[in-house]
């Protein structure tokens, strides 16, 4: 019996299928992680950690997590013939442990000064031994898909190919909604792409009660005639079920099923924002309830800080979309079709997403595609010749990548989005300010004529053996800092409770221990900044067996 493993390397977590190669790549089991193992909330955090702490530490964390995840698939390693992966260029480079500084720095002069030689990111095959994966046979094949350009990765190629957008010859947009929102605009035979660091709110993270799309997550909210909100929750097979009707103001609950909610995922966040705005419960940036919270089932609450976190993500996505349209020189009426990929793009109510600015305000058709990255990894396992086809498509696309980080249009748009979501700038003032920068104002919303959901869930099939979740990912990092007085200010200030201070009897003094998957990384470093003795250095933290 021969098996293959399809692995999606996402910015907020990993997803894996075990497939039976003797039965046309039928899915047998599925395993997912709840978080990314590296510190940080987006790809830039991951890059900074990798560069600052060293690739040896970064790659060890990743390969240990992958080994743990694959062990949950319940298969004898000797029966696994090959593994395929898919993801953005940064995640694939981290997995493969190749040069990533060409993705971290935009300027050619900087890269030349560092002596960076840009690696090939064409499709190729390596082995598990090359990656130092100990859970699989060292000679097992690992299929690495190509990028279109070094900044436009296999995940973007996957959503382009799985959507079929290139065959329709129409002006359309596609976005993979996640921590790093990959987006593309196809117009007149050319693809224009960008990547907006939307942040983790779209995956349910950095939200007080947030979680990834997993069993027991609130994934949608619907408004009932009596003013209550229907709480829709993912069950153990990732199917959507109405679990309770809740008064968002008081929290009074009428339970419909015994399915419990543990938190709210990104699509639920979008629903909370959209319903809140439409009902007047949210008057940006405030929540107009006595408690300043929106109440959901099982004592889950949505706060004004959550509104701000979500607003920053939604603002980045809308700024990205409109930057692409401006750079190409087209109007809102020119974009006819929107393709939504990823977990958030699958479960979210498209009309609510439009209310929140996550898809264009004028559209004819919306397609919701599912996890196209995992789908493409599955295609590579089923038929290895798919790798050659992917490379052919990648070579055939005339691609233009727009760096939002250095783009003036995006900068203007995002500053205004922050004012709108976080500072209470009204829509009229927002449009006036847009036009002052020579940009087109937002048109009135025109609802799409049809919304087509091509799959029932983000992961349409989990297999007969079901879904397993790896809750604890990553490793611990630690250091003994000479001069540390054990005041524990670093521990107390950690927003994610990722850090502990231990008395170190062996070496004397105190030892700082951090759980990498919970740590926000170099984007935070509150721990380092509050050290009164100035002896704490985040980059001195090392991975070893001390715990």
Blueprint of the fold:
Elements: E1 3-9, E2 14-20, E3 26-33, H1 43-53, H2 55-71, E4 80-87, H3 89-96, H4 101-104, H5 108-114, E5 124-127, H6 128-131, E6 141-144, H7 154-163, H8 165-168, E7 172-176, E8 181-187, E9 190-196, E10 217-223, E11 229-234, E12 240-246, E13 253-255, E14 263-264, H9 266-279, E15 282-283, E16 286-287, E17 293-295, E18 301-303, H10 304-328, E19 337-341, H11 342-347, H12 350-355, E20 365-370, H13 372-382, H14 386-396, E21 398-401, H15 408-422, H16 427-436, E22 450-453, E23 467-470, E24 476-480, H17 489-493, E25 499-503, E26 510-515, H18 526-529, E27 542-543
Parallel strand pairs: 1-4, 3-23, 4-6, 7-19, 9-21, 10-14, 19-20, 20-22
Antiparallel strand pairs: 1-2, 2-3, 5-6, 7-8, 8-9, 10-11, 11-12, 12-13, 15-16, 17-18, 24-26, 24-27, 25-26
Helix pairs in contact: 1-2, 7-13, 10-15, 15-16
Model description:
The protein has 547 residues and is an alpha/beta fold. It has 4 domains: 3-149 and 376-386 and 462-470, 2-Layer Sandwich (Nucleotidyltransferase, domain 5); 156-200 and 308-370 and 396-401 and 415-453, 2-Layer Sandwich (Nucleotidyltransferase, domain 5), CATH 3.30.420; 201-307, no CATH class; 476-543, Alpha-Beta Plaits (2-Layer Sandwich). It is 31% helix and 24% strand. A 7-stranded mixed beta sheet has the order 5-6-4-1-2-3-23. Strand 25 and strand 26 (510-515) form a beta hairpin. The longest helix has 25 residues, at 304-328. The protein is globular, with a radius of gyration of 23 Å. It starts with a strand and ends with a strand. The mean pLDDT is 91.
């Amino acid at each position: 019996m021969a098996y293959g493993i399809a692995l999606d390397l996402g910015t907020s977590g990993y997803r894996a299928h075990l497939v039976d190669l003797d039965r046309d790549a039928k899915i047998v089991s599925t395993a997912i992680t709840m978080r990314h193992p590296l510190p940080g909330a987006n790809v830039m955090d991951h890059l900074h950690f990798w560069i600052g702490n060293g690739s040896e530490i970064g790659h060890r964390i990743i390969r240990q997590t992958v080994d743990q995840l694959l062990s949950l698939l319940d298969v004898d390693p000797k029966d696994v013939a090959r593994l395929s992966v898919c993801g953005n260029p940064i995640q694939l480079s981290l997995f493969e442990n190749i040069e990533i500084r060409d993705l971290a720095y935009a300027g050619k002069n900087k890269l030349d000064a560092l002596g960076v030689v840009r690696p090939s990111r064409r499709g190729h095959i390596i082995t598990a031994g090359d990656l130092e994966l100990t859970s699989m046979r060292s000679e097992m094949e690992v299929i690495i898909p190509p990028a279109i350009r070094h900044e436009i990765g296999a995940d973007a190629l996957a959503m382009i190919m799985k959507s079929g957008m290139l065959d329709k010859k129409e002006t359309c947009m596609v976005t993979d909604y996640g921590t790093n929102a990959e987006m593309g605009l196809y117009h007149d035979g050319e693809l224009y792409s960008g990547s907006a660091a939307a942040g983790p709110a779209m995956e349910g993270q950095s939200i007080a009660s947030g979680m990834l799309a997993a069993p027991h997550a609130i994934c949608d909210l619907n408004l009932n005639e009596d003013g209550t909100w229907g709480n829709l929750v993912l069950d153990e097979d990732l199917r959507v079920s109405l679990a309770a009707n809740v008064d968002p103001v008081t929290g009074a609950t009428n339970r419909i099923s015994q399915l419990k909610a543990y938190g709210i995922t990104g699509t639920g966040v979008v629903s909370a924002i959209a319903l809140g705005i439409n009902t007047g419960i949210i008057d940006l940036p405030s929540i107009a309830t006595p408690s300043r919270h929106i109440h959901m089932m099982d004592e889950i609450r949505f706060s004004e800080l959550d509104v701000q976190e979500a607003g920053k993500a939604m603002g980045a996505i809308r700024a990205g979309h409109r930057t692409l349209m401006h750079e190409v020189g087209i109007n809102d009426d020119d974009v006819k079709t929107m393709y939504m990929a990823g977990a958030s793009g699958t479960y979210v109510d498209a009309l609510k997403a439009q209310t929140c600015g996550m898809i264009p305000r004028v559209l004819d058709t919306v397609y919701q595609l599912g996890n196209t990255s995992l789908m493409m990894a599955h295609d590579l396992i089923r038929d290895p010749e798919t790798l050659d086809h992917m490379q052919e498509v990648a070579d055939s696309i005339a691609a233009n990548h727009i760096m939002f980080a250095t783009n003036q249009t995006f900068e203007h748009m995002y500053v205004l989005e922050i004012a709108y979501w976080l500072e209470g700038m009204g829509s009229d003032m927002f449009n006036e300010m847009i036009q002052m920068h020579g940009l087109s104002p937002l048109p009135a919303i025109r609802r799409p004529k049809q919304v087509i959901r091509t799959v029932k869930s983000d992961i349409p099939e989990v297999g007969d053996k079901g879904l397993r979740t790896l809750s604890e990912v990553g490793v611990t990092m630690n250091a003994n800092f000479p001069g540390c007085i054990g005041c524990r200010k670093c521990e107390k200030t950690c927003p994610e409770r990722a850090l502990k201070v231990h008395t170190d009897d062996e070496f004397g003094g105190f030892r700082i221990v951090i759980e990498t998957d919970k740590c926000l990384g170099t984007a935070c470093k509150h721990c380092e900044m509050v050290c009164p003795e100035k002896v704490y250095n985040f980059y001195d933290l090392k991975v070893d067996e001390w715990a």
